[in-house]
Amino acid sequence: MTASPAGRTAACTRRTKFNPLTWLAAAGSTAAITTAAASWQLSVAVVAACLGLSLAGGTARRVVPAAAAVLVPLGLSLLVLHGLFFPEGRTVLAEWGPSRVTAEGLEFAGQRILQLAAVVMALLLFSFSVNVPDLVAALSARGVQGRFAFVLASTLTLLPAIAARAQRIRQAQESRGLVVTRSRVSRAGAFRLQAVPLVLSLIEDAGTRAAALEARGLSSTGPRTSYREVPDSSLQRTARAVLVLLAVAAVVLRLVQAGSGG
C-alpha cells in the first residue's frame, strides 16, 4: 500500500515548514540522548515514534528496509558477542566448551540492540525525510561551508540507495547459485559475498557523487550567494538550542555517573 499523491504532497508541505537544521537537531539529540540514557524503554519509545513518523511521512517503505540492512548483521554480532562471551554472566542457560549463553549476556545484548535500533532509525528517518538542497542552503546561510557541507551532502544523497543496492546484489548472487542455509557458516559466507561488493560499489558511487558536487563548487570556501530560501523562525531556533542543550546535558550526566561508578 502506497501513499496517494495528495498524501505525499501534504507530507512534503508539512516538512517544508520546518528548517532542515531543526530536523538535524532533533535526530542528533535523539541519538545522543538515547545513547546516554541506555534505557530500553526509551529506545523502544524512540523506535516506535520513528516508525510512526515514517508512516505518516510516507518514507516507511525505504526507512524500514534500510534499517533492517544495518541492524540485522549488527544485531546478530551483538547477540553472539555478548550472549556467548559475557564475562559478568552468572545465570547459565546453555554451555558449549568455553562458550556460555547467559541470561545477563542476552539481556545486555538486547538492550544494546534496542539502543542501536533507536539511533539508526532516528538518523535514517532524518536522511530519508530531509531535503538535501534545503539543508545545504541552511548550512551555508549560517557560515557552515566547505568540506563539512560537502561531505554531509554527499553522504545524504548516497544513503537512500543502500537498501535497494543491497537487495540487487543479493538477487544477483542468488541468480549465480548462492544458497543461504540456516547454518552460521553459510550465513557468514553469504554476508561476506554480499557485503564486499556493496561496500566497493558505495565507495565508487561516493567518489562519483563527490566529483560531481565538487565540480559544482560545493567544496569551495569562498563567498557564496544562495538563491534558495529556507523557512525558519525564532521558535525553531529556540527549539534547536534546547535540543542541543538537552543532548549535551544527557552526555555530561552519563559521564558523571560513569565516573562515580553509578
UniProtKB/TrEMBL annotation:
The keyword Membrane applies. It comes from the Bacteria. It is a multi-pass membrane protein. The keyword Transmembrane applies. It comes from Arthrobacter sedimenti. Keywords: Cell membrane, Membrane, Transmembrane, Transmembrane helix. This is Energy-coupling factor transporter transmembrane component T. The chain crosses the membrane at residues 21-54, 66-87, 108-128, 148-166, 238-256. It is found in: Membrane.
